[in-house]
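Fig. S4 source data, part A: sequence.
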Amino acid sequence: MARRGPAVLPMAMAVALTACGSGTAAGGPAGDTGVPGTVTVFAAASLTDVFTSLGEELADRQPGLEVRFNFAGSSALATQITQGAPADVFASANEAQMAVVTDAGLADGDPAVFATNVLEIAVPVGNPGGVTGLADLARDELAVALCAPEVPCGAAAEDVLAAAGVAARPDTLEEDVRAALTKVELGEVDAALVYASDVASAGGAVEGIAVPEAEQAVNDYPIAVLADAPNPEAAAAFVDLVRSEEGQRALADAGFRAP
């Protein structure tokens, strides 16, 4: 069962948590050992849908396990972890933000890349701005959303735009990719650079325009159990599920590429 949890982490910034709990599951498939307690996963916003589904699956298999999520921009999550936020797992939308955590000695072992992603242009249904490619993001009359430069999708956008020789004119810089996508879904902007997986997650609410230059800024997604994980067994179980054949199928279905 998915539900919204309270913003309770002891830090200056309030954090919204999503929880998937299972206290009545009667055992799972072979290999599941039953890991009770709570596991808290800090994950990039672009992983919201697929990780929530995987968390529900893990909770169903593990009697008494609650899987809690904090979805946000990877840079914000890395900052929260280095400032002492209690978490078991970190999944970043690029390796640079994972390095913030590993360089601080806060990862248990080497992170593993479990997926990749590229940017697409998302436009409202019907494409009222007549967007056909990256060059249109420089048009004065269009409202454009990009991710902030410190966020992985923003860093990738800078690389893609530079490769295309386009000086975009963003009207808003968002703190995570889902916020940029929401601007398109609500019709508040004519276009946004988001991940291909986000376009897929929106279903028919937006239209996606592939850009060849995106292949020059492919984002690797690493995941790691954290060194001070309150529940390392459950953390390892979640990471194993993400990297399993089942997890990889779920990621592919959600629009991610294989690592």
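Fig. S4 source data, part B ends here. Helices lie at 48-61, 74-82, 95-103, 152-164, 177-185, 196-201, 232-243, 245-253.
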